[in-house]
């Protein structure tokens, strides 16, 4: 039976407005009348339409979360942090995955508008980040992992240039000189890590061998395979991957060719995914404060909702260099 609020009003002998006040706990209602309405609700088994009530109030209590690749453990952990924090605040989360696809990204941003989300946490593609304007949306946005132009939106990111430079300095200090890098081609993150990588190599007068590729294992397999096929005198003696999926692909290709990380060629990268400590030798990585990124993003969003007029903030967090056997000294 599809019960409506007027059915409750009729059973309790009151107006629809009175029932609405009882349900929302908003407005004067005498205790005796309130108890009569609650009794009618229980007797009829009435369940209010929460979605309709949220739409009427203008507050859907829903957070949008748009990530670039849900298969990437980085975004899996970030999503967990956002969901944990949202749950504690009584908020729901709509999770969308773009696959670094601009069309899907635009579609999901439109979905956020249609769903009237309270706010959105978002990892944009490079092009979207560069042209992002917060005033184009009716809800506040916090960017994660990638940021737009200064002042365009609140953001939580890693210090990508510094982290990539630290990887290079570590490898140079271990005696490596032909250092190649794989960098994601769809985000500001890959470009920033390339910049830090190239700048650090330049300080040592070393050549920059780098490729911008789709940020997935298959791309790494292809390019690392080509590097390993070179003559011993020209192929890299170390490889850096700018995210966990590229690092995984590079490792797989090296193992498939019988190349041992840390013995034949060094291997290092970003993201302290579980497998990097389980293989032998372990893989040297920059560990990102992933859960903290998601948690802080929710804090920034909550603060923005409380005070929409505050100035935009961009928090840049440091990475932690975790040294393992894949970058053993030459």
TrEMBL record:
- Tell me a Gene Ontology molecular-function term this record carries: transcription cis-regulatory region binding
**A Pfam family it matches:** Peripla_BP_3
Please tell me whether the keyword ATP-binding is annotated for this protein: no
Domain HTH lacI-type residue range list: 3-57
Instruction: Provide this UniProt record's keywords sorted from A to Z.
Output: DNA-binding, Transcription, Transcription regulation
PANTHER family in the cross-refs: LACI-RELATED TRANSCRIPTIONAL REPRESSOR (PTHR30146), RIBOSE OPERON REPRESSOR (PTHR30146:SF145)
Q: What is the protein named? A: Transcriptional regulator, LacI family
């Amino acid at each position: 039976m599809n019960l409506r609020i007027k059915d409750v009003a009729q059973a309790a002998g009151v107006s629809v407005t009175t029932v609405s006040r009882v349900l929302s706990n908003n407005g004067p209602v005498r205790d005796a009348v309130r108890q009569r309405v609650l009794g009618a609700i229980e007797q009829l088994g009435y369940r209010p339409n929460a979605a309709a009530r949220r739409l009427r109030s203008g507050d859907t209590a829903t957070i949008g979360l748009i990530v670039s690749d849900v298969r990437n453990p980085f975004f899996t952990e970030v999503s967990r942090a956002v969901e944990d924090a949202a749950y504690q605040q009584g908020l729901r989360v709509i999770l969308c995955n773009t696959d670094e696809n601009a069309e899907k990204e635009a579609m999901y941003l439109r979905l956020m508008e249609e769903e009237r989300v309270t706010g959105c946490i978002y990892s944009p593609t490079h092009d979207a980040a560069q042209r992002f304007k917060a005033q184009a949306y009716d809800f506040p946005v916090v960017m994660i992992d990638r940021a737009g132009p200064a002042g365009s939106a609140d953001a939580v990111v890693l210090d990508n240039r510094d982290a990539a430079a630290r990887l290079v300095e570590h490898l140079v200090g271990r005696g490596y000189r032909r250092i190649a890098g794989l960098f994601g081609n769809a985000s500001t993150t890959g470009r920033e890590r390339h910049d830090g990588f190239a700048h650090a190599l330049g300080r040592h007068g070393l050549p920059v061998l780098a490729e911008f590729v789709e940020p997935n294992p298959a791309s790494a397999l292809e390019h690392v395979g080509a590097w390993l096929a070179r003559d011993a005198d020209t192929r890299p003696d170390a490889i850096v991957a700018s995210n966990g999926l590229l690092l995984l692909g590079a490792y797989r290709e090296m193992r498939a060719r019988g190349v041992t990380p840390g013995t034949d060629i060094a291997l290092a990268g970003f993201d302290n995914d579980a497998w990097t400590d389980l293989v032998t030798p372990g893989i040297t990585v920059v560990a990102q404060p992933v859960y903290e990124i998601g948690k802080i993003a929710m804090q920034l969003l909550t603060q923005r909702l409380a005070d929409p007029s505050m100035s935009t903030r961009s928090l840049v967090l440091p990475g932690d260099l975790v040294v393992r056997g894949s970058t053993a000294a030459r």
